[in-house]
Design goal:
single chain, alpha+beta, Beta-Lactamase, 4 helices, 6 strands, globular
Length: 152
């Protein structure tokens, strides 16, 4: 992916979220846009943090997914616990990977933080191994920050 694609996506995200601060409405549009605009992805969506630390499925675009992820489990749970983006080139090689869609081969998970608090994670899967690059990491982190800033 190119940084130009992420610049275009940032403009689209800002336009979609402009004037709206509802978490769910913005998450739904955000996930749909990323799923539709990023090539070679089969799932894009949110897992939302609960008071117990568990992650629960939020708005997404793609095939049906796992509903709840225990704290620290899988790529999503690990990214949330560490509060850092995780890029997994081969999900089958990630010891604690939780299989939701057997077609997924690689994954990137970006934590959603606001004031140091974990609100959830944004997860993108691909059917291609090693699909996500450092450009994707930087671009998705920037887009997730724009999303987080849109909230009340």
């Amino acid at each position: 992916m190119t940084s130009e694609l992420y610049e275009r996506l940032e403009a689209q995200v800002r336009a979609l979220l402009d004037g709206e601060s509802d978490f769910v409405a913005n998450a739904g549009n955000f996930a749909a846009l990323i799923h539709d605009e990023l090539p070679d992805v089969n799932w894009a969506g949110f897992y939302l943090a609960t008071p117990s630390g568990e992650l629960v499925l939020g708005p997404f675009s793609g095939r049906a997914a796992c509903t709840r992820i225990p704290q620290g489990r899988g790529v999503c749970g690990a990214a949330g616990a560490k509060q850092e983006t995780l890029v997994v080139d081969d999900v089958d090689a990630f010891a604690d990977h939780i299989v939701c869609d057997s077609a997924s081969r690689s994954e990137i998970v970006v934590p959603i933080l606001r004031g140091g608090e974990l609100l959830g994670v944004f997860d993108v899967d691909s059917p291609i191994k090693a699909r996500f690059t450092e450009t994707d990491r930087a671009g998705l982190e920037r887009l997730v920050r724009v999303y987080s800033e849109s909230l009340d």
